[in-house]
Protein backbone atom coordinates (compact mmCIF):
# COMPACT_ATOMS: atom_id res chain seq x y z
CA UNK A 1 0.00 0.00 0.00
CA UNK A 2 1.50 3.33 -1.00
CA UNK A 3 1.68 6.36 1.27
CA UNK A 4 -1.25 8.27 -0.25
CA UNK A 5 -3.52 5.23 -0.23
CA UNK A 6 -2.73 4.58 3.42
CA UNK A 7 -3.37 8.22 4.32
CA UNK A 8 -6.74 8.20 2.52
CA UNK A 9 -7.84 5.09 4.42
CA UNK A 10 -6.75 6.51 7.78
CA UNK A 11 -8.67 9.72 7.08
CA UNK A 12 -11.88 7.69 7.30
CA UNK A 13 -11.38 6.73 10.95
CA UNK A 14 -13.40 8.25 13.79
CA UNK A 15 -11.73 10.70 16.15
CA UNK A 16 -12.19 11.36 19.87
CA UNK A 17 -15.77 11.79 21.00
CA UNK A 18 -14.89 13.69 24.19
CA UNK A 19 -11.21 14.63 24.08
CA UNK A 20 -9.54 15.44 27.39
CA UNK A 21 -7.00 18.25 27.64
CA UNK A 22 -5.35 16.62 30.67
CA UNK A 23 -4.44 13.61 28.51
CA UNK A 24 -3.50 15.83 25.54
CA UNK A 25 -5.97 13.98 23.34
CA UNK A 26 -5.27 15.61 20.02
CA UNK A 27 -6.20 13.45 17.07
CA UNK A 28 -3.10 12.23 15.25
CA UNK A 29 -3.46 13.56 11.68
CA UNK A 30 -3.78 10.88 9.02
CA UNK A 31 -0.92 12.50 7.09
CA UNK A 32 1.50 12.16 10.03
CA UNK A 33 0.33 8.68 11.02
CA UNK A 34 0.66 7.45 7.44
CA UNK A 35 4.13 8.91 7.08
CA UNK A 36 5.39 7.27 10.29
CA UNK A 37 3.87 3.91 9.41
CA UNK A 38 4.89 3.90 5.77
CA UNK A 39 8.46 4.79 6.70
CA UNK A 40 8.57 2.06 9.35
CA UNK A 41 7.14 -0.41 6.84
CA UNK A 42 9.81 0.47 4.28
CA UNK A 43 12.39 -0.41 6.95
CA UNK A 44 10.81 -3.81 7.56
CA UNK A 45 9.40 -2.90 10.97
CA UNK A 46 5.67 -3.48 10.28
CA UNK A 47 4.80 -6.30 7.87
CA UNK A 48 4.92 -9.67 9.61
CA UNK A 49 5.92 -7.99 12.88
CA UNK A 50 4.25 -7.76 16.28
CA UNK A 51 3.38 -4.10 16.75
CA UNK A 52 2.20 -2.22 19.83
CA UNK A 53 0.64 1.25 19.80
CA UNK A 54 1.25 2.91 23.17
CA UNK A 55 -1.29 5.57 24.11
CA UNK A 56 -3.25 4.47 21.07
CA UNK A 57 -6.17 6.87 21.49
CA UNK A 58 -8.68 6.13 18.76
CA UNK A 59 -6.33 3.63 17.15
CA UNK A 60 -5.06 5.37 14.04
CA UNK A 61 -1.51 3.99 14.32
CA UNK A 62 -2.73 0.55 15.39
CA UNK A 63 -5.17 0.35 12.48
CA UNK A 64 -2.53 1.56 10.05
CA UNK A 65 -0.07 -1.08 11.24
CA UNK A 66 -2.69 -3.79 10.73
CA UNK A 67 -3.48 -2.46 7.26
CA UNK A 68 0.22 -2.72 6.41
CA UNK A 69 0.36 -6.39 7.33
CA UNK A 70 1.55 -6.57 10.93
CA UNK A 71 1.25 -10.12 12.23
CA UNK A 72 -0.28 -8.94 15.51
CA UNK A 73 -1.26 -5.49 16.77
CA UNK A 74 -2.03 -4.32 20.31
CA UNK A 75 -3.31 -0.86 21.22
CA UNK A 76 -3.04 0.39 24.81
CA UNK A 77 -4.67 3.50 26.27
CA UNK A 78 -5.77 4.67 29.70
CA UNK A 79 -9.06 6.10 28.35
CA UNK A 80 -11.81 3.48 28.02
CA UNK A 81 -13.87 5.83 25.84
CA UNK A 82 -11.04 6.22 23.35
CA UNK A 83 -10.56 2.45 23.28
CA UNK A 84 -14.23 1.99 22.36
CA UNK A 85 -13.75 4.30 19.37
CA UNK A 86 -10.56 2.43 18.46
CA UNK A 87 -12.45 -0.86 18.49
CA UNK A 88 -15.09 0.59 16.17
CA UNK A 89 -12.39 1.86 13.84
CA UNK A 90 -10.79 -1.59 13.69
CA UNK A 91 -14.15 -3.24 13.07
CA UNK A 92 -14.93 -0.81 10.25
CA UNK A 93 -11.85 -2.08 8.41
CA UNK A 94 -12.35 -5.68 9.56
CA UNK A 95 -9.01 -5.62 11.37
CA UNK A 96 -7.99 -7.98 14.16
CA UNK A 97 -6.45 -5.78 16.86
CA UNK A 98 -6.26 -6.37 20.61
CA UNK A 99 -7.10 -3.26 22.60
CA UNK A 100 -6.29 -2.91 26.28
CA UNK A 101 -7.41 -0.23 28.75
CA UNK A 102 -4.36 0.36 30.93
CA UNK A 103 -2.00 3.03 32.20
CA UNK A 104 1.38 2.49 30.61
CA UNK A 105 2.95 3.20 34.04
CA UNK A 106 0.93 0.50 35.82
CA UNK A 107 2.92 -2.31 37.48
CA UNK A 108 -0.17 -4.53 37.43
CA UNK A 109 -0.04 -5.18 33.68
CA UNK A 110 1.78 -8.23 32.31
CA UNK A 111 4.17 -6.14 30.24
CA UNK A 112 6.44 -9.10 29.54
CA UNK A 113 3.50 -10.73 27.80
CA UNK A 114 3.12 -7.67 25.58
CA UNK A 115 6.69 -7.74 24.28
CA UNK A 116 6.74 -7.02 20.55
CA UNK A 117 9.01 -6.18 17.65
CA UNK A 118 7.96 -2.58 17.05
CA UNK A 119 6.31 0.17 19.09
CA UNK A 120 4.55 3.05 17.35
CA UNK A 121 3.29 5.95 19.43
CA UNK A 122 2.25 9.57 19.62
CA UNK A 123 2.94 10.30 23.30
CA UNK A 124 1.84 13.51 25.06
CA UNK A 125 4.09 16.44 24.21
CA UNK A 126 4.09 17.61 27.84
CA UNK A 127 1.95 20.71 27.36
CA UNK A 128 -0.24 19.83 30.35
CA UNK A 129 2.26 17.86 32.42
CA UNK A 130 6.00 18.22 32.06
CA UNK A 131 7.92 15.11 31.00
CA UNK A 132 4.69 13.25 30.17
CA UNK A 133 6.48 11.51 27.32
CA UNK A 134 9.14 9.88 29.51
CA UNK A 135 7.03 6.91 30.75
CA UNK A 136 6.11 6.20 27.13
CA UNK A 137 9.75 6.14 26.04
CA UNK A 138 10.63 3.89 28.99
CA UNK A 139 7.84 1.42 28.28
CA UNK A 140 8.43 1.44 24.54
CA UNK A 141 12.08 0.46 24.92
CA UNK A 142 11.11 -2.21 27.43
CA UNK A 143 8.64 -3.77 24.97
CA UNK A 144 10.36 -3.50 21.59
CA UNK A 145 13.65 -3.28 19.80
CA UNK A 146 12.36 -0.69 17.32
CA UNK A 147 10.40 2.41 18.35
CA UNK A 148 8.83 5.06 16.13
CA UNK A 149 7.42 8.02 18.01
CA UNK A 150 6.00 11.47 17.26
CA UNK A 151 7.60 14.22 19.34
CA UNK A 152 7.44 18.00 19.46
CA UNK A 153 9.98 19.80 17.28
CA UNK A 154 13.31 20.17 19.01
CA UNK A 155 12.91 17.01 21.11
CA UNK A 156 15.73 15.06 19.48
CA UNK A 157 18.54 16.24 21.82
CA UNK A 158 16.41 15.39 24.86
CA UNK A 159 15.44 11.96 23.51
CA UNK A 160 19.08 11.22 22.67
CA UNK A 161 20.24 12.19 26.16
CA UNK A 162 17.35 10.44 27.91
CA UNK A 163 17.91 7.14 26.08
CA UNK A 164 21.72 7.21 26.16
CA UNK A 165 23.01 3.72 26.85
CA UNK A 166 19.61 2.19 26.07
CA UNK A 167 18.98 3.09 22.44
CA UNK A 168 20.33 4.92 19.45
CA UNK A 169 18.46 7.37 17.26
CA UNK A 170 18.47 5.92 13.76
CA UNK A 171 16.60 8.68 11.99
CA UNK A 172 14.58 11.84 12.54
CA UNK A 173 11.88 12.97 10.10
CA UNK A 174 10.40 16.45 10.45
CA UNK A 175 6.85 16.99 9.26
CA UNK A 176 3.90 19.31 9.73
CA UNK A 177 1.24 18.34 12.25
CA UNK A 178 -2.08 20.13 11.55
CA UNK A 179 -3.70 20.59 14.97
CA UNK A 180 -7.41 21.40 14.76
CA UNK A 181 -9.42 23.29 17.36
CA UNK A 182 -10.11 20.71 20.08
CA UNK A 183 -10.41 22.44 23.43
CA UNK A 184 -12.05 25.63 24.75
CA UNK A 185 -8.71 27.42 25.17
CA UNK A 186 -7.91 27.06 21.48
CA UNK A 187 -8.37 30.33 19.56
CA UNK A 188 -7.80 29.18 15.98
CA UNK A 189 -9.57 26.52 13.94
CA UNK A 190 -6.22 25.05 12.94
CA UNK A 191 -2.59 25.52 13.85
CA UNK A 192 0.21 23.76 12.02
CA UNK A 193 3.08 22.75 14.27
CA UNK A 194 6.29 20.95 13.35
CA UNK A 195 6.92 17.53 14.84
CA UNK A 196 9.74 15.02 14.71
CA UNK A 197 9.16 11.35 13.97
CA UNK A 198 12.03 9.73 15.84
CA UNK A 199 13.16 6.16 15.18
CA UNK A 200 14.90 4.55 18.12
CA UNK A 201 16.69 1.19 18.08
CA UNK A 202 17.26 -0.47 21.42
CA UNK A 203 20.89 -1.34 22.13
Automatic annotation (TrEMBL):
Q: Where are the transmembrane segments?
A: none
Q: Which residues form the Methyltransferase small domain?
A: 41-134
SUPFAM superfamilies given in the database record:
S-adenosyl-L-methionine-dependent methyltransferases
Its Gene Ontology molecular function terms? nucleic acid binding; S-adenosylmethionine-dependent methyltransferase activity
Alphabetized, the UniProt keywords read: Methyltransferase, Transferase
Per its UniProt entry, which superkingdom is the organism in?
Answer: Archaea
Provide the GO biological process annotations. methylation
Pfam families documented for this protein: MTS (PF05175)
The record's section on InterPro entries has: DNA_methylase_N6_adenine_CS, rRNA_MeTrfase/Polyamine_Synth, SAM-dependent_MTases_sf, Small_mtfrase_dom
The entry sums up its family as follows: Belongs to the methyltransferase superfamily. PrmA family.
Q: What is this protein called?
A: Methyltransferase-like protein 5
